[in-house]
Each structure stands twice: as structure tokens, then as C-alpha cells.
Design goal:
Alpha-Beta Plaits; transmembrane; ABC-type transporter activity; 33 helices; 13% strand
């Protein structure tokens, strides 16, 4: 006899998984290439935007100071000698001047003045000036000193000097500053001479052009308190009145407690709205608010001059000749900021985080498709799986990041080119490890690919937005507690964002000051958070990888491990569960429920006594499988009661036996197999495979177990040969022994010839997949094999061929098989158990079951409908206790107890009947296994 093969070592399992993974990834090379090239395409988009930005900055950096383009003139070019501008008042536009209304006092002019025009086409509405103070007589005196009753004759000076001696105003809209106050090049520029009374039209010469001078009446009105002034201004404001009308005033003065010894004045002025007729859109948007300050000096000068005249007489003047801004140097032209530095933290956070849902989906896919548990059931340990999977994801991540950094550097992005590449490598390498550990941890919490994909991408975009909108503000706020920054950096995506933010912060400095970007020495600076980020990621990676590994062990195992199972190596394995069962103590119950075993079935009772005897004698290793009071209950949901799938199963299966489990759909067969192969956890009871407890030693059981699941668990892109090579290596087959075993397996299931062995499993038919699943379950000489309906979907020829394979595999191997085919059960199984409603109803070999539950012959006869009664009389003469079980159109079927009839007597009776009436057909059969199954299932369900 061939010596028993030892279990595959850690490195043998790792080699098997590595070879399988390389083959699998080679078949998916296009997807992998597209994945690692994603950064390249994003970099191209960013490089195109940055190229456009450079072209714009190039144009902005070369202004033509000799040009008449006011944009360059006012923003870029030097102005050593600012132009002198006339000090003017800002007058309300003629259609908006204050008039009498329901919400304004009656001393204002009537609204009809807006529609009355003089011979020159100008409105006759005066501009209104509001006054208040503690002393009305003084206030009115000062108001009279502000404005001349008539203009003095034009002096010999130019227009600027004339304006300095008179109170002038304009309803034109000033621009952003006095360098571009109002456009003198316009065809119509109206300057108003503001006075108490009208005077004849006159004209004067301005430095730029000839402009017409129009008189404008100013109407000073007294108000008792500053509150009245304020309310009137507010209610007359464009959006402040309920009637939607506009009533603007020139301004208002509050002389407060002014007297001969004290001058105290407050000035109201409109700094919010333009006054031109065509500026309503800009008015409502608040445009030009700062420009109104340019007209304020004349308003203040009026009050000062009036008070001086009050003290010194009318001939005293305080002239305001001109206003001008301070000279300015040539300004640095407006430059668009570096796009990569500006959007880099958010943009590259999203690009790098896109790997997270990809890794998580790959891990959850193997769990959802049960490929992970399939590999585990054939001997693959958690350690090799983690090492090879982690190495693959890390390799892809490193290539992904190299593609990002190299393509970014080649396209000239400063966020990559200007920093020390070793810092970048350390930062990205640490984060890739942290991201993979986070993906393993998240994958342990999901079992559905679609759900994990949605959650993964939500986390990607939410992390980037949170980092950009909030986390960055926290970093830049010196009052925000630093320890909270570290707490937030414990979120892996935010630690990535912080590192990219630090790179972006150093990028503008490197591009403008001439430094070389971030270096290792910069990490010592207190304001540089990169060192803090590297430390946080390094520590968190160790913590997450430890937690993820142990959580994965906990969720992927059905052996009932506690969360601290990793400490068992220090204190020894807990054998309390096994010891209590071996000593005959009752098995555990669940939720206070108990399930009794029917004791009126002697074969089932005998099997239970056999199991208890084996456990008491501690002889569980003499049988391949021993189950004792094994139970499985599914908790009730949505108001439904508990579902008892397996109710106290006792079974002992020796080596070299094929045990068939029959039962209707929903009887609990698949639930029993799932508990035995580690897919689901038993509710209570015990089961041993070669003496190893499924509660605590499932990992050891996997090394000597083969499984053909009910549904084919295959990789679509791997061939049949590659599947068998992988599982053969897991069973510690090597070299020529492996090649020989694979070829023999392929030949045994008729997948060797015609190139079928090297055809991808995704292109197999359903029957070919079932045959491959059977071959996988048998390769490597497993000591226990579970086959859940192995011949489903096979044609008769393939089914017979498969039966020969299973019969040959029974040598020194225990096979537990479920099937709905009675013919298959009779051919393959040494013993059968009929499983109904979670219980074994009977157990024995096929002949015993047919003898015990089928003690009758089945007699069938077909005649015309007129002779049915004669047929029944004939049967009663043969067997008085005959039972009619079928009747249809002349065909009748009867059960004849074997102890009442003989076959010769039946033939004689039929020959005699043929002479009395026509007999079209007749038959006598023994009880079939199908009859036994139907009888047992029907009886058990009643």
C-alpha cells in the first residue's frame, strides 16, 4: 500500500497559489494593464490643463504699457505720476432723485419733476441734502455756507481750477480707481454746478475736452434727529421701500453738538450703488462699492469749508484743488496658480484611492463565489493565502504608483519633479501597504461584491471632499487642536490627503523661490506635517494588518474560535468541547429548544448506539466520519419561526464505504454537508473526521478532505488542467507524481482528449464542469470525500462513466454522497440513509431497505374498461390482502404481500384470465428503491 502522503507545507501551498495566481493574472493581463495605466490618463488630462495655464500666464506676463488697453494699464504698468482728477460730488441719477411719496416727508419735491425737463432736456428735480444736529440755526447756516447762490465768473485758470472754486458733481459712474475714474473720451460728459439756485448755462475748458456745464439745484432739508435721517435714507433706498421706487439723496450731515468752539460732523454717503441709468444690473449686484469713496473727499470738504466760513467770514475758502492716488510701481501680472499644486491634494487623493475598491472587490468576489472556502477546503491555509494575495496587490499598487510618479515627472508636474523621490517612495509605499490592509479589513465585513463596490466608491469620493473642504481648513487653522489633526489622520484617506497637501505646499515655494522642493531635512520643521503622517501610517499599518488578519480568521472559519484565538498557542488548545462529548455528556442546545430523536426506528437507534460506543471507547479514529447529535437551526427572520434543518444526526462512516444520503428537497442534506465541509457552523452537537473535531480542528481536516459542491466553484479563465494542477499541489503532489495524477484525473472524467483539458472552464458545458468538480474532489488521494449531487446535468453515458470513477475511488476512502437518483444510489452506495425533515428515517444497504420497507410485489394489468372488475376479482383470488394503488383507463396496479403469493401462482392466474377476457399487457415487479423512498418520505411527512 502506498504510504500516506503528508500535508502540504506552508511554502508548498504558497507555491501552488502563486502559480495559480500568475496564470490567472496572465489571462487577465489586459485588465491589469488598463488598471495600472489609469494614473497615466489622469496625468495627461492634468498636463493638458497645466499647458493651457502656462499659455495664459505667458500672455498675462507681457503687458504693452504703451497700449491704450486699460486692463494692462491699470493692473500691470507702472504709474510714477498719477493723474490729477477733479474733486466731484456723486449725484444721484436724474430719474432716481428723492421725491415726495407715501413713505417720505412732504417737503420733498413732487414726483412730477422727474418728467419735467427744461429746454436742454434735463430733469428739473433738485438733488436733496439732509441735515440734522442739536442746533438747527447753526446747521442751516452751515448748509448755506456749503453752496454758492450763484457761480463766480470763470477765472483765467483751466477747468480744474474752476472746479476747485465751485461745487461740481457728476452722475457718471466712477470705475475701480481714480486712474480710470470716468471716461472723458465719451461723447457726452455732463458736469453739474451744484448751487442753491439756478444760474444761466455756461461752459468751461477741461484739460481733456470741452464739456458742458449744467446748473443743478441742491435742496437742503432739516430733520430733527439723526434717526429720522437714517430712516429716510433707508426707506428711500432702492430695495428698502415697499413700493419698489427709488428715492436717492445727495448725502446727509449730522452736525451733532457743533458750536463756535467745537466742530463735530457725521457724513452719510452712498457707497453701494452706481447711479447711472444703465447700471441697474451692477447696482443690484453691489458692483462699484469701493469706487464711491473716490467722491467722498469733496463731501467732507464742503462741511469743513462751511464751518470755516462760519468762523472767518464768507471770503475764507478751503480749496480742494484735486484728488489723486499714490504712485505705484509696475505690478506683477496676474498669474494663474499652478493647477497641479492647487488641485493636487484632492485630485491625486481620488486617483490613488481608486485602488481601494478594486482590491476590496477582488477579495469579496472570492468570498462571494466561495472560491476562497473552496481553496481552504482543499488544504490552503490562511497564511499562504494572505502572503500571496498581499504580495500581488502590493505589486500592482507599486506599479500603479510608479506609473503615477513617472508619468507626472515626465509631463513636468512640479508636485512630482521638485521633491526628493526617496521621500515620495517612502510615503507612497507606506500608504499602499496601509490601503491594502484597510481593504483586507473591509473585505472581512462584506459578502456581496455590489454592496462593497458602492460603499468603496462612496468612501473614495467622500474622503477626498472631506479632506478638501474641512480637513485642509483644520490644518491651516492654527487655533484647531493639533491632537485632533492626528486623530483625523488615523483615517487612511486623510493621512494620504495630508501628505499630498504637504507636497503641494512645498511646490509653490520651490517654483518661485528657487529651492528644490521637499527634502529629508524639511521633515524636522515644526510646520511640516510629513514626518507626523509617515509615523501615523507606519504604526496604523501594523495595527490594521494584525486586526484584519485575525478578523479574517474569525469570519472565514466555522470552528467556533473566540476573538482571542491567536493566544491559544500560548495556553494550548481548548479541548473542553471534545472531552465533554467523548464522555457521553449531553450536547449543547440552542435558544432553550430541544429536539428529540424518534426511538421507534431500530436501524437509526442502532446507528446512534454505535456512535456513542465509539465515543465512549475513544475510538473515533477507527471511522472516517463520526457525527453525534449534530444539529443545525436557522434563526427566524421577518416574523418567521426558526428553521430546524438538521435535528440530532448520528452517523458513523468507516473507511472504504460510500454512504448515500437520500431525501426530498429541503430535507437538510446540503445543510449537513455544509457543516461537515466548513461552509456553515453547527448549532450544536459534534462531528469528527479521522478523529479531528470540526469545531476546533477544521484547518487540519481540510488537508485530507475532498469536496464536490452542489454548485461548481471554478475560475472561469483557468483551464481544467490548471485547476487540477493547483489543487494537486495543495495536496502536496509534486513533479512527475503531480503530472501523472492530473492526467489520470482528466482521463477518468473524460476531459483529457480533444483539447478539452486545455480549454478554459468558462467555456465548458454544465456536464463538463460537474466532471471537473468530481476530478478536483478526488485528486491527491483525500481520505474523506463529500459529493453533493455529483451527476446532476450529466448525460447517461457520462453518468455511467462517472459512476465507475467513484466506485474505483472508494478504496480506503470514505465517500459521503447525496443524490436524487435511486439508480445512482444503488450502484454506488454501500449504505443508504433516507433523510426527511432534518432526521434520518432509516439506514442500511439497498437490499435491506427494500426488504424492510418493500415486502410486496407490484402487479399491473391492462384490459378494456369493461373487464376491470374481473381483473380485481382475479387479484383477490391470488392475494386476499392485495391493495389497489392505481387505476386509469383499464390499467390497474396492485400491491401483493409476498407472504401470500408465489410467482408461479400469479402466472397461472394470468393464463387463466387470458382465456376469459382480452389482456393487453401485464407485469409483476419487485419493490424498487424508489418505492421505498416514496413510502418512507410520505410516512415521515405525515
Amino acid at each position: 500500500m502506498e504510504p500516506e502522503r503528508s500535508a502540504a507545507s506552508f511554502w508548498t501551498q504558497s507555491n501552488a497559489l502563486l502559480r495559480k495566481s500568475l496564470t490567472y493574472q496572465k489571462r487577465n493581463i489586459r485588465s491589469n494593464i488598463r488598471l495600472v495605466l489609469i494614473p497615466f490618463f489622469f496625468i495627461l488630462i492634468l498636463a493638458a490643463l497645466q499647458s493651457l495655464q502656462k499659455n495664459v500666464n505667458k500672455q498675462l506676463s507681457k503687458p504693452d504699457c504703451g497700449s491704450s488697453d486699460q486692463f494692462y494699464l491699470t493692473l500691470s504698468c507702472p504709474i510714477p505720476q498719477p493723474q490729477e482728477w477733479a474733486p466731484l460730488l456723486q449725484l444721484p441719477s436724474r430719474d432716481y432723485r428723492a421725491v415726495r411719496s407715501s413713505f417720505l416727508p412732504s417737503d420733498l419735491p413732487d414726483e412730477s419733476c422727474r418728467s419735467r425737463h427744461d429746454e436742454r432736456g434735463y430733469s428739473s428735480c433738485p438733488v436733496t441734502l439732509l441735515l440734522t444736529g442739536n442746533n438747527q440755526s447753526l446747521g442751516e447756516t452751515l448748509a448755506g455756507n456749503m453752496l454758492l447762490n450763484s457761480p463766480p465768473p470763470k477765472s483765467a485758470g483751466d477747468g480744474m481750477e474752476y472746479i476747485a472754486h465751485n461745487v461740481m458733481g457728476s452722475d457718471s459712474s466712477p470705475q475701480e480707481n481714480m486712474f480710470h475714474d470716468y471716461d472723458w473720451s465719451m461723447d457726452v460728459v455732463t458736469i453739474y454746478n451744484v448751487q442753491r439756485h439756478c444760474s444761466p448755462n455756461s461752459s468751461f475748458y477741461l484739460p481733456v475736452r470741452e464739456a458742458s456745464l449744467q446748473p443743478k439745484i441742491c435742496l437742503p432739508l432739516w430733520r430733527n434727529t439723526s434717526t429720522e435721517v437714517n430712516n429716510e435714507l433707508y426707506r428711500g433706498y432702492r430695495n428698502g421701500n415697499s413700493e419698489g421706487k427709488i428715492n436717492e439723496v445727495l448725502g446727509a450731515y449730522d452736525f451733532s453738538n457743533s458750536d463756535k468752539n467745537n466742530f463735530n460732523v457725521s457724513v452719510w454717503y452712498n457707497s453701494s450703488l452706481k447711479s447711472g441709468d444703465d447700471d441697474v444690473g451692477e447696482v443690484l449686484s453691489g458692483a462699484g462699492s469701493d469706487s464711491k469713496l473716490l467722491r467722498l473727499p469733496r463731501a467732507v470738504n464742503l462741511a469743513s469749508s462751511a464751518y470755516l466760513r462760519f468762523l472767518k467770514g464768507f471770503g475764507t475758502n478751503m480749496l480742494l484743488d484735486f484728488v489723486k492716488e499714490m504712485p505705484k510701481l509696475q505690478e506683477t501680472p496676474f498669474q494663474m496658480p499652478d493647477i497641479a499644486s492647487m488641485i493636487g491634494p484632492l485630485f491625486f487623493t481620488w486617483v490613488i484611492l481608486l485602488l481601494f475598491p478594486v482590491v476590496m472587490k477582488s477579495l469579496v468576489y472570492e468570498k462571494q463565489q466561495k472560491l476562497r472556502i473552496m481553496m481552504k477546503m482543499h488544504g490552503l491555509g490562511d497564511g499562504p493565502y494572505w502572503m500571496i494575495s498581499y504580495a500581488y496587490f502590493l505589486t500592482v499598487s507599486v506599479v500603479y504608483m510608479l506609473c503615477l510618479v513617472i508619468s507626472g515627472s515626465l509631463t513636468g508636474l512640479k508636485i512630482f519633479r521638485l521633491h526628493d523621490y526617496t521621500i515620495q517612495f517612502v510615503f507612497y509605499f507606506l500608504y499602499m501597504n496601509l490601503q491594502i490592509a484597510m481593504a483586507f479589513l473591509a473585505a472581512a465585513l462584506f459578502s456581496n461584491v455590489k454592496a462593497c463596490s458602492v460603499i468603496g466608491y462612496i468612501l473614495v469620493f467622500a474622503t477626498g471632499l472631506f479632506g478638501s473642504e474641512l480637513f485642509q481648513a483644520f490644518i491651516e487653522d492654527p487655533s484647531f487642536p493639533r491632537y485632533w489633526i492626528i486623530v483625523l489622520e488615523l483615517i487612511p484617506g486623510l493621512s494620504l490627503y495630508r501628505g499630498l497637501y504637504e507636497f503641494a505646499e512645498f511646490t509653490p515655494e520651490a517654483s518661485t523661490v528657487g529651492t528644490v522642493g521637499m527634502r529629508w531635512g524639511n521633515l524636522r520643521h515644526s510646520k511640516n506635517g510629513m514626518r507626523e503622517v509617515l509615523i501615523v501610517m507606519f504604526v496604523e499599518w501594523f495595527v490594521l494588518i494584525f486586526v484584519a488578519y485575525n478578523l479574517d480568521k474569525l469570519t472565514s472559519s466555522v470552528s467556533g474560535k473566540s476573538p482571542l484565538f491567536f493566544l491559544q498557542s500560548c495556553f494550548g488548545k481548548n479541548k473542553e468541547h471534545s472531552s465533554s462529548l467523548r464522555s457521553g455528556t449531553p450536547s449543547a442546545q440552542w435558544q432553550g429548544s430541544t429536539v428529540s430523536i424518534q426511538m421507534d426506528k431500530p436501524d437509526v437507534t442502532q446507528e446512534m448506539e454505535k456512535v456513542e460506543s465509539l465515543l465512549l471507547d475513544q475510538d473515533s479514529t477507527s471511522h472516517a466520519i463520526i457525527c453525534h447529535d449534530l444539529k443545525k437551526v436557522y434563526p427566524g427572520r421577518d416574523g418567521n419561526p426558526e428553521k430546524f434543518a438538521v435535528k440530532g444526526l448520528c452517523l458513523a462512516l468507516p473507511r472504504g464505504e460510500c454512504f448515500g444520503m437520500l431525501g426530498p428537497n429541503g430535507a437538510g442534506k446540503t445543510s449537513f454537508i455544509s457543516m461537515m465541509i466548513g461552509l456553515t457552523k453547527p448549532s450544536s452537537g459534534a462531528a469528527y473526521v479521522h478523529g479531528m473535531d470540526i469545531w476546533t480542528q477544521m484547518d487540519e481536516i481540510y488537508t485530507s478532505m475532498g469536496v464536490c459542491p452542489q454548485h461548481d466553484l471554478l475560475w472561469e479563465s483557468l483551464t481544467g488542467r490548471e485547476h487540477l494542477l493547483f489543487y494537486g499541489r495543495l495536496k502536496n503532489l509534486k513533479g512527475s507524481a503531480l503530472i501523472e495524477a492530473v492526467e489520470e484525473s482528466l482521463k477518468s472524467v473524460n476531459l483529457f482528449y480533444g483539447g478539452v483539458a486545455d480549454k478554459q472552464a468558462g467555456k465548458y458545458s454544465g456536464g463538463m464542469k460537474r466532471r471537473l468538480s468530481v476530478a478536483i474532489s478526488l485528486i491527491g488521494d483525500p481520505k474523506v470525500v463529500y459529493m453533493d449531487e455529483p451527476s446532476t446535468g450529466l448525460d447517461p453515458a457520462s453518468r455511467n462513466h462517472l459512476w465507475n470513477v467513484v466506485k474505483a475511488a472508494k478504496q480506503d476512502r470514505a465517500i459521503l454522497l447525496t443524490t436524487h437518483s435511486m439508480e445512482e444510489a444503488e450502484v454506488l452506495c454501500d449504505r443508504l440513509g433516507i433523510f426527511v425533515d432534518g432526521r434520518l428515517q432509516c439506514i442500511g444497504n439497498p437490499k435491506e431497505l427494500k426488504a424492510r420497507y418493500g415486502g410486496s410485489y407490484i402487479f399491473t394489468m391492462t384490459t378494456s374498461g369493461d373487464h376491470e372488475e374481473e381483473v380485481e376479482k382475479m387479484v383477490r383470488t391470488i392475494s386476499p390482502n392485495a391493495n389497489k394503488v392505481y387505476r386509469l383507463s383499464g390499467t390497474q396496479k396492485f400491491e401483493l404481500p409476498k407472504n401470500e403469493v408465489t410467482i408461479a401462482h400469479v402466472f397461472q392466474a394470468v393464463e387463466a384470465a387470458k382465456r376469459q377476457f382480452p389482456v393487453f399487457a401485464w407485469g409483476l415487479t419487485d419493490t424498487t428503491l424508489e418505492d421505498v423512498f416514496i413510502k418512507v418520505a410520505t410516512t415521515a411527512s405525515q
